[in-house]
Amino acid sequence: NHPNHPPRTLLLLAFAVIYVVWGSTYLAIRVVVETMPPFLSAAARFLFAGVLFLAFLVWRGIPFPGRREWQLASVTGLLLCVGGNGLVVWAEKSISSGLAALLVALTPVWFALLDWVRPGGKRPEVKTVLGIVIGFAGVILLVNGRSGPDSNGGSLIAALAVVAAGISWAAGSLYARYAGRAESPWMNAAAQMICGGAGLLVLSLALGEPSQVQWNAISARSIVAFVYLIVFGSWLGFSTYVWLLRVSTPSRVSTYAYVNPTIAIFLG
User: What span, in angstroms and rounded, lies between the C-alpha atoms of 239 and 177?
Assistant: First the structure.
């Protein structure tokens, strides 16, 4: 099969990974930030996952990324890992994993809008615009109508941060799709994780997170969740997502954001 026309079974398995596995990561993130700083833990996750994945790929004979590939990966990595993931991790200090996943469900809206305004973009259909209106109305009702730990001023800022994360994630995904194509989608994913992890580390250092860590207070469940995020969230989920952006359309790939909330709320 041509790389842009993979077997249907492989496509279905890939979509199942980002639907189910990524749905589970919201709970894992919530457990991690119980005892670990948000940006520092996210930086460690992506740097660890990216460096090991890159080393494995080089060992397998895949060429090391060139200057152009690193430039593309730096933009995509910052938008996806720092803006897209980092803000969600930070927000889950204040809001539940279920609410975070529901707010991420707006991501297909940002995909449609940003795909429209980009040079040579495609105008969304009437049903897409209708979906945007309904989506906004639903999110307003959701945030205003919740009670308990999510109903405070801090949670409103956190909710807005998750919405911003969705915009950043859509921008990064579309950039990865149209800006230029790396030789290997897997090496591209590794480079993106490294660049994103480096950006998160700079942000963490700027906020003074390392000096605030209580290392002896980090719980075993946070460590287990952290390892889960590396193996399933990054190596399996993120790499699969980068590959899907290459072989499928952005609108189809973005449908993960409609399925993740169901998984996240069920697990949460």
Answer: 14
